[in-house]
Amino acid sequence: MTGSVAVIGSGMMGSAIAAMSALAGNRTLMVDLNMEKALNGRKNALECIKMRADNGLNTQEEAVLAADNLICCGSLKKEAENIGLVIEAIVEQLPAKQNLFEELDKLLLPTVPICSNTSGLRITDISAKCMYPERTITTHFWLPGHLVPLVELVMGEKTREDIALCVRDELTHWKKVPVLVKRDVPGQLANRIFQAIIRESIDIVASGLAGAEDVDAAISYGMAMRFPEWGPLKHLDAIGLDLGISVQDTVLPDICAVRHSNTYLKNLVDEGKLGVKSKQGFYDWKVRDIEKEIRKRDQFIIETVKLVTRLDKG
């Protein structure tokens, strides 16, 4: 890719995306509604860069260069001819994204990919006002965006495959693991799988089969231990597809298959139990420390990424 990378929106995800772009050696423009927000986003991006360098995911030399690559600006008009890639990470509201994409579509050269970090909206809808929707694509970074390797690339109804492959190659250079989703459907790819796990997890608690802590433990200390290097389809091939059919025929008839949010979950919400924000959800957050849990999560991801990287090189 030639040209600068522009990241529009400098919140939690935007700053992490900008950090990864800068670490990859790109001149990276952080754009927001005002310079104060952009500068605050740059501060957060520098913290992301420091965390990666301090934990060996990037070198200290790469971190120093990345800091120099981060540039704050309030508008792209003066930079338009020098931009090679745009990633939008603004508020998750369709009209706001549509208006921004329409503006970018008019401003940038028709060959410049325009990407959205949307977690749920369709890129086809986001790009509805664009003259060149074929160069638009979803690039959904997973939280925390500077640590989790996955990026879901979702092609819209008019996205050109060569554009998608070009973006995939660029993000691979960012030390990301991009996966290509060829249809613009709700939940993209990974979130469809994740929602199936969540649905069954809630149903197990609601039915009294096990408590929330045991459900999370079963996932964290069981299947999740294999997932970084042993996905479910690789697992099926390993055990034999005939055995996989036998297990499915036994288990699937008895698992949750509702096509709406669980009544148990709705009852918790009606009782004002909203999770961390209300200090009560599946867990009692009056006696648990969410910041401590986040630190543990991030450190686990860091160590896992380092291990998987070593295994891949070996």
Automatic annotation (TrEMBL):
Which ranges carry the 3-hydroxyacyl-CoA dehydrogenase NAD binding domain?
Answer: 4-183
Q: Where is this site: Important for catalytic activity?
A: H140
Q: Which InterPro entries does this chain map to?
A: 3-OHacyl-CoA_DH, 3-OHacyl-CoA_DH_NAD-bd, 3HC_DH_C, 6-PGluconate_DH-like_C_sf, 6PGD_dom2, NAD(P)-bd_dom_sf
Q: Which UniProt keywords apply?
A: Membrane, Oxidoreductase, Transmembrane, Transmembrane helix
* Gene Ontology MF terms: 3-hydroxybutyryl-CoA dehydrogenase activity; NAD+ binding
UniProt keyword annotation of Ribosomal protein present: no
- Span of domain 3-hydroxyacyl-CoA dehydrogenase C-terminal: 189-285
Q: Which GO terms describe its biological process?
A: fatty acid beta-oxidation
Give the stretches traversing the membrane. 6-25
Give, as in the UniProt entry, the pathway in which the protein acts. Lipid metabolism; butanoate metabolism
Give the family this protein belongs to, as stated in its UniProt record: Belongs to the 3-hydroxyacyl-CoA dehydrogenase family.
Q: Quote the protein name from its UniProt record.
A: 3-hydroxybutyryl-CoA dehydrogenase
Q: Which organism is it from?
A: Enterocloster bolteae (strain ATCC BAA-613 / DSM 15670 / CCUG 46953 / JCM 12243 / WAL 16351) (Clostridium bolteae)
